């Protein structure tokens, strides 16, 4: 499973890279806005340190606008993935951009049929939003399971990015299902490193080490 960080914060990305846990990055307008910096400066910082896929999202609402914007985003680096919302216009743009050799991440996917459409349009990635489904009393992980089954049935090369991740159990369940990628906030990645028994064990080891004669 590949780990992407869902963030626009360069410090979080650098910390994740030092841990060896960042295979790529996903962003969106909300994450960019949190940084209180220009879009260009945030993107430049990320692309300067991340070698893996970096998803940058279009904000146009028409296929024509998405294609134009997507080409500009893709020109920023060979590892840029154009992030396009799952709409009729978005599918049109995905078809055009993927046909021209650009990688597309179809985002805001909430049903298996939306994922199927995205894969048929040529998307390199689809991003089912599991946390937002959980918020409205739907089983977000069931969506991931259904999408993976459909893609396996027809041997689609489109990768599934489990998105809208809220806690480590989302990561565990996605891994058990065999999802290709999970994109998570840095806070979730940090939570995964910790366990109370690890803390207790470490404290005991350190306490016992103090008792060991030094000569």
Can you tell me about this structure?
- Strand 3, helix 4 and strand 4 (80-85) form a beta-alpha-beta unit.
- It is built from eleven helices and eight strands.
- Helix 4 (63-74) crosses helix 5 (88-99) and helix 8 (140-154) runs parallel beside helix 9 (168-177).
- It has an eight-stranded parallel beta barrel with strand order 1-2-3-4-5-6-7-8, surrounded by eight helices.
- The termini are far apart.
- With 215 residues, it is of the alpha/beta class.
- The chain has a single domain (2-211), classed as TIM Barrel.
Distance between the termini: 47 Å
**Per CATH, what is the topology?**
TIM Barrel
Shape by Cα distribution: globular
Strand content: 15-25%
CATH architecture: Alpha-Beta Barrel
On the 0-100 scale, what is the average pLDDT?
97
Report the structural category: alpha/beta
Spell out the blueprint of helices and strands.
Layout lengths: L1 E5 L3 H10 L4 E3 L2 H6 L4 H11 L4 E4 L5 H12 L5 E6 L2 H12 L4 E6 L2 H10 L3 E4 L1 H6 L4 H15 L4 E4 L5 H10 L3 E4 L1 H7 L3 H16 L4
Parallel strand pairs: 1-2, 1-8, 2-3, 3-4, 4-5, 5-6, 6-7, 7-8
Helix pairs in contact: 4-5, 6-8, 8-9
């Amino acid at each position: 499973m590949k780990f992407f960080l869902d963030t626009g914060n360069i410090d979080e990305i650098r910390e994740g890279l030092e841990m060896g846990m960042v295979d790529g990055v996903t962003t969106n307008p909300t994450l960019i806005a949190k940084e209180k910096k220009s879009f260009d400066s945030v993107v430049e910082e990320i692309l300067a340190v991340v070698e893996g896929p970096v998803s940058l999202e279009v904000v146009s609402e028409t296929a024509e606008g998405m294609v134009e914007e997507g080409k500009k985003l893709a020109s920023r680096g060979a590892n840029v993935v154009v992030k396009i919302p799952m709409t009729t216009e978005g599918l049109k743009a995905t078809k055009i951009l993927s046909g021209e050799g650009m990688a597309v991440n179809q985002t805001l996917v909430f049903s298996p049929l939306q994922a199927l459409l995205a894969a048929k349009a040529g998307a390199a990635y689809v991003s089912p939003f599991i946390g937002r489904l959980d918020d409205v009393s739907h089983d977000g992980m069931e969506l991931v399971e259904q999408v993976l089954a459909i893609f396996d049935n027809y041997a689609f090369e489109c990768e599934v990015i489990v998105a809208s991740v809220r806690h480590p159990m989302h990561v565990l369940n996605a891994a058990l299902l065999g999802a290709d990628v999970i994109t998570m906030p840095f806070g979730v990645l940090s939570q995964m490193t910790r366990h109370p028994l690890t803390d207790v064990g470490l404290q005991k080891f350190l306490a016992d080490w103090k008792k060991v004669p030094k000569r």
